[in-house]
Fold this sequence. Notes:
Blueprint: E1 3-4, E2 9-15, E3 22-24, H1 32-38, E4 41-50, E5 54-56, E6 62-64, E7 67-68, E8 75-89, E9 97-104, E10 106-112, E11 115-124, E12 137-145, E13 148-151, E14 158-160, E15 162-164, E16 167-174, H2 182-189, E17 201-206, H3 210-218
Parallel strand pairs: 1-5, 2-11
Antiparallel strand pairs: 3-17, 4-8, 4-12, 5-6, 7-8, 8-9, 10-11, 12-13, 12-14, 15-16, 16-17
Amino acid sequence: MRRVGLILSAILVVSEPSTSSAALSRGGGLTFEDLVRLSDRIVVATMLGESGEMAWLPVGQETHLGIKDAATGLVFTPYRVRVRECLLASDASCREGDAEVLIPGGTVYELIDGRPRLRTWEVSGAAGAVLPPIGENVLLFLRRRSDRYVPINDPGGRSVVRCEAGAESVTLEFASTRLLSPAGLAAVGAGSVPGSGSGRFVETIDLRLVKSLIEGVRRPPFPGR
């Protein structure tokens, strides 16, 4: 990891085109079905931390340098993850092991009045989709950008995997009851779930079942349905 020196730092803000065993939610984020349809890759991964070159800030602290997309001008910061399992991939490049994803926003050098200066680009609206802490296992929904992958900017797109009594699970929000488990359907049918007007259903699912749910969303519907 190479460290580079510093001249000046500025901040710019840019915009970029969000429970119980079975419950209804009034949240405005993407549902599991939305996330699966938008994703080019879905993995279970451990969060490792930012990567890449470092720069010294004026206050004597270090920061990771981001990279700027020459085509769009958007700034991203490389972030290391350790892929445990590939649940969906649009090509054969998905492998278990260490990998990098790109997080929107970051600090880059730019030429200002002919001098290299540090600028920090923050993404408007991204605060609601913060990354889970380092060391957490996460269900990551990713979109492809050139030959790299970017987590979908929605809280549901980086769902933390919970482990209790040796069993791993993840909480997902569904657009309908079609993908709920028998227990979830029974809870809804019993009328024990408040907020029936929202039309969204949240259930905690065994992690081993998530791949079959993804396949259920991606599978073409039967004729007439």
